[in-house]
Structure formats: structure tokens, C-alpha cells
Amino acid sequence: MSIPVTLIAGDGIGPSIAEATVRILAAAGADIEWDRQVAGMAGVARWNDPIPDATLDSIKRTRLALKGPLETPVGDGFRSINVALRKTFDLYANVRPAHTIIPGRFKDIDIVLVRENTEGLYIGVEHYVKIGDDPKAAAESVAIITRVGSERIVRYAFEYAMKNNRKKVTLVHKANILKFSQGLFLDVGRMVAREYEGRIQFEERIIDAMAMHLVMRPEVFDVIVTTNLFGDILSDEISGLVGGLGLAPGANIGTTAAIFEAVHGTAPDIAGKNIANPGALVLAACMMLDHINDGDRATRIRHAFESTLREGVVLTRDLGGTASTDEFTNAVIARLG
User: Fold this and answer.
1) Is the pTM of this model over 0.85?
2) In the CATH hierarchy, which fold is given to the domain comprising 103-242?
């Protein structure tokens, strides 16, 4: 029986890389029924809404979505569409893997960052403060971190480590300065870690020191768990260690829905030119296959994709080659046998 999945191609290069990904999954024999929907500027163009009701209804029905990059309209009233989707479906865990495919400065990186996805500064509680006659003399943003939110994301990280034969979880915080909010996150993390003692190694790192250690000895890290803002920053950093956002997939996991995505931008300068690298979305689709217990197929696609990159003959421009999106996609499909 086909598995229904909401497909949001996205803006800019989104339609091109989404079509490439659909072709690769079909060639691998994935039995998926795509429900094609729109969001971002494509949603505005069609429905005058960056997150149309039809798209939300589709995700509510399928509980699975594969999403290309989205452009948030400029103007008052529009926050990040990605943030809005995470809040709507309570997608509390953002999972960003990064591992070395083509050896560069670093050779043995295999890191998974688990980021709390719904709290912290990104919760959007902020306002201006009037001082004297100036109504916008200051601005205040509130970082809200809850015990429930902290426990479920740290527990997710440990359960991910157990399921995927990982050895260590590193909790990243700033509790030395932010005694209450980050202190709560750290205290809860220590409590959860005790439940896995003897099975999963646990360590703590302060965020600034962690950023330094990641560019000095990234190979010593395994699973990293942290709060929303820190996770946003560190996830891009670890992507940079393995070649950049063009090879960076992401998953947004909740209890009732999951959205898998390419985490890079819309790249409007190359949209419609058939030269974009579909790698991030292909790898996100592999994460989706893992999520629906089709791990063998995900592994086949990853091997075909990575073998194409390592061979170095058919590569898109961002990877140092001259191939078109279609040519690169065909090369991956050919390796699927």
C-alpha cells in the first residue's frame, strides 16, 4: 500500500530539486503517493497565503511532509514559515546529521545535532519598551524554556543515540550566565542522563567552548543536544565542516507529524537554470524513509548518492563540477542499479 506524503516543492530552486528527489525515490522503488502542495511565495501566488489551509490539511492527513526551501514574504505579520510549521504541528525535535562524504579539512566527522525546536528565544515573545518619548527606545525578547520541553528533547537525543548505536550525547548550554533558563535545561539534562548511565556516555559543554571545539576536533563528537538558538547556530557550523548546506538535510519530528527538509535557502540566482544540487533534499528524503521504517531503501539511495560524489565525474557546480541537476540525478539513479 502506498504511503501518502505531502510534497512541498518550495520556492527558488525548490521545484527543481524536489523533482530530482522524486525521480530518485521512484527509481529506488519507494512506494509513495505524493500529495503536492504549496507554501512560501508559491502559496502567496496561488492562495494569497504563505501557509495555505490546503497545505496544513494535507500534513494533518498524511502526517509526513518533504519540503524544499521556502521564502518568507517580506512585511509585517510574516514570521518564518518554517517556525510556524514547527509550532503548528509541535515539531519539537530538529535533527541535523553531518558526516564526511568527500574528505576535506576534516575526514572522520559523523555528528547528529538534536535541537529543541519550539521554545527559547524563537518562541517569539518580544516587545518594544518605551523610554521617554521614544516608543521603540529598547526591545525585549523573552527566552522561554520549560521543564517539559527540555526533558522531551534531551530524552529524544538519548533515545536516538540508543536506536542508532551512538556512544555519546553532549549537552550544550550557557548555564554559567543564564542561571534560570539555561540552568533549567542543564538540570533536566543531567536528570535524564542518569537514566542512561552505563549505556550512553554523557558530557556537558558551554556553548562558546563548544563552538571552538567543533572546529578543532569535531571527530570527538557524536550526538549533540541543545536549545533552539544555539542549535540553529551549531547546526550550520557542523554543516560547514562537511561541505556546506548543499549537503545538509534536516528533520522536524513531533508526536503526530514529521517534516523533512533541505535546510539551505531558495538560491533565487540559480532558480530555473537546472544547475542546483539536490543533495540536501535527497538526504532529507532518506531520513524520511528511515522514519517510516524503510531503512534498507534509504541506505541504497545514500550509497548511490555518496558514490556519485566520491567518484567526482558527474558533479553540480557547487561541488566543483559542471553537471546539470538532471545529469547529476541520472548519475545517482544509474548507481541504484
Assistant:
1) yes
2) Isopropylmalate Dehydrogenase (3.40.718)
